[in-house]
Backbone:
C-alpha cells in the first residue's frame, strides 16, 4: 500500500503555559496543506525493514522514524506481522509543517487497512497521541482547533477557497521545537499585536488577521533567525493579506487573493 502524507499549517499558535507533565498547553488551528507530500509504501514482509530516502532525508536512524515506531506500536498492541517500509521524504524537516508526524499517522492508518484491524479514527488518534503531539491531527486530516499539548481536537469549519496559499522555507534553516520553546520566556513584545484568543481572531475576515492572529513562536524565533522574519515581510510586500510562520518554524506561509 502506498500513501502520500501531507503536511499542516498553523493558523495562529498561542503557548499558554507549561503543564505539570512537562508539555506546554497551546491552542492553534491546524489545516491540511497538500503542497508538500511524502511517499510512504508499506507491504507485508517476512521480517521488518525500513528504508528512507528523498531530497529532505537528513540521515536520521530509520529505526527511530515515526513510521517504524508506528509499526512497533501496532505490533505490540495488536500482534500484526512484519512489514517493509519505504519512505521518500519530500516535505521539509524542521520547518513546523509536521511532516514527520504526518508520516507516523499515515503509517497507522495504512497498517489498520493492511491488516484489516477495523479501528475507528478516534482509536487511531489515541494511538497516534502516543507517537507525538501533532500525530492525532493527521488521522482526521481536516481543519481542527487544537488544544492541550496538541492532542485535543475539535472540528472547525473554515473556507479558504477564496485564497491562494504559498509556503516558503528558507534554505538551510531549520528550527527545533526545543529551540523555539527556549526563547518564549524572553521579555519581547510583538509590535501592534492584539492579545486575544485564536477563535476570536478567526471569527474576523482573513483581511483583518494581520497583527491579531499571532504565532507566539515568532517572538523567540525571529530574533535568532532574521531570514525567517524577512520571508514574512516579503510576502506582505508582494500583497499577501496574511502571513505567518507555521508551528515553530522555519516555514512561512501566506494567503493571497485566489485571482492574484
Residues:
Amino acid at each position: 500500500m502506498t500513501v502520500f502524507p501531507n503536511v499542516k499549517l498553523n493558523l495562529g499558535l498561542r503557548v499558554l503555559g507549561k503543564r505539570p507533565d512537562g508539555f506546554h498547553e497551546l491552542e492553534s488551528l491546524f489545516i491540511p496543506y497538500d503542497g508538500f507530500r511524502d511517499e510512504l509504501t508499506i507491504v507485508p514482509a517476512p521480517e521488518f525493514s525500513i528504508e528512507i530516502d528523498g531530497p529532505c532525508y537528513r540521515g536520521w536512524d530509520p529505526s527511530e522514524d515515526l513510521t517504524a515506531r508506528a509499526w512497533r506500536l501496532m505490533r505490540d498492541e495488536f500482534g500484526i506481522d512484519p512489514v517493509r517500509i519505504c519512505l521518500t521524504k519530500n516535505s521539509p524537516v524542521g520547518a513546523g509543517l509536521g511532516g514527520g508526524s504526518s508520516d507516523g499517522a499515515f503509517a497507522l492508518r495504512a497498517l489498520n487497512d493492511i491488516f484489516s484491524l477495523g479501528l475507528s479514527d478516534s482509536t487511531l488518534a489515541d494511538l497516534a497521541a502516543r507517537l507525538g503531539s501533532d500525530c492525532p491531527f493527521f488521522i482526521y486530516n481536516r481543519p481542527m482547533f487544537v488544544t492541550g499539548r496538541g492532542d485535543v481536537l475539535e472540528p472547525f469549519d473554515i473556507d479558504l477557497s477564496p485564497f491562494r496559499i504559498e509556503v516558503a522555507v528558507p534554505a538551510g534553516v531549520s528550527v527545533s521545537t526545543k529551540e523555539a520553546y527556549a526563547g518564549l520566556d524572553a521579555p519581547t513584545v510583538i509590535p501592534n499585536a492584539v492579545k486575544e484568543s485564536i477563535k476570536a481572531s478567526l471569527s474576523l475576515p482573513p483581511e483583518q488577521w494581520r497583527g491579531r492572529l499571532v504565532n507566539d513562536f515568532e517572538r523567540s524565533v525571529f530574533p535568532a533567525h532574521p531570514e525567517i522574519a524577512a520571508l514574512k515581510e516579503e510576502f506582505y510586500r508582494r500583497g499577501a493579506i496574511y502571513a505567518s510562520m507555521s508551528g515553530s518554524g522555519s516555514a512561512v506561509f501566506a494567503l493571497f487573493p485566489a485571482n492574484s
